[in-house]
Design goal:
- The chain folds into two domains: 55 residues, Orthogonal Bundle (Arc Repressor Mutant, subunit A), CATH 1.10.10; 135 residues, Tetracycline Repressor, domain 2 (Orthogonal Bundle), CATH 1.10.357.
- It contains ten helices and no strands.
- GO terms for molecular function: DNA-binding transcription factor activity; transcription cis-regulatory region binding.
- This is TetR/AcrR family transcriptional regulator.
- Keywords: DNA-binding.
- It comes from Jhaorihella thermophila.
Length: 203
């Protein structure tokens, strides 16, 4: 049996540099606006050297998305059926907001892909993502049936959490301009906690 050769430290470092540079370029310009030349320049590599690791722009983008998508599901996966419903939902809101704070480029990469019609991740949206959202929507509905949280549309509740948290990453420049440069992540957690607490405990 042929063993897969492990990449050298230089190869691993170059791959990481390419993906980090590509994340910057794709999140700024979208898939269509990004070029291999831009990515190579941002990575500090020649174009032929970059193409040694990834044969095309599509291959780089696919590698980035593959790395991102699994991470993207983690905050929702962590919603615990055995936990206290309101606190589980509020914890999910906090995790999503923390992702916007810590991974803004990844959020914009994802948003750009969706805006373009999700040509490279539609299968993921209709399989892995849909299955997980269906599972958690059913959990939310069961908590509503038990009278443990107020009744709202479970899917739109999840959509609203996505919108209200990812906005801080995708529209960061606009948010900071309106807040005169103040850090939105200092005040957003308390606002969102209060908003969803009121929504989910109202009669």
């Amino acid at each position: 049996m042929t063993k897969t050769r492990r990449p050298t430290r230089i190869q691993a470092r170059n791959r990481a540099a390419i993906l980090d540079a590509a994340l910057e370029v794709f999140s700024a310009h979208g898939f269509r606006g990004a070029t291999v030349d831009q990515i190579a320049a941002a990575a500090g590599l020649s174009k032929p050297n970059l193409l040694y690791y990834y044969p095309s722009k599509e291959a780089i983008h696919e590698a980035l998305l593959s790395r991102l998508l699994d991470t993207w599901l983690d905050p929702l996966r962590a919603m615990d059926p055995a936990g206290e419903p309101l606190e589980e939902i509020l914890a999910y809101v906090r995790r999503k907001l923390e992702m916007s704070r810590d991974y803004p480029r990844e959020s914009r990469l994802f948003a750009n892909e969706i805006v373009q019609g999700a040509p490279r991740i539609l299968g993921f949206l209709t399989s892995d993502l849909k299955a997980l959202v269906d599972e958690k929507a059913a959990l939310l509905e069961s908590w509503m049936d038990e009278g443990r949280i107020a009744r709202v549309h479970p899917y739109h509740l999840i959509f609203s959490i996505w919108s209200l948290t990812q906005h801080y990453a995708d529209f960061d420049v606009q948010v900071r301009a309106i807040l005169d440069g103040d850090d939105p992540f200092e005040t957003a957690p308390a606002f969102l906690d209060n908003l969803y607490r009121r929504l989910l405990t109202s009669a």
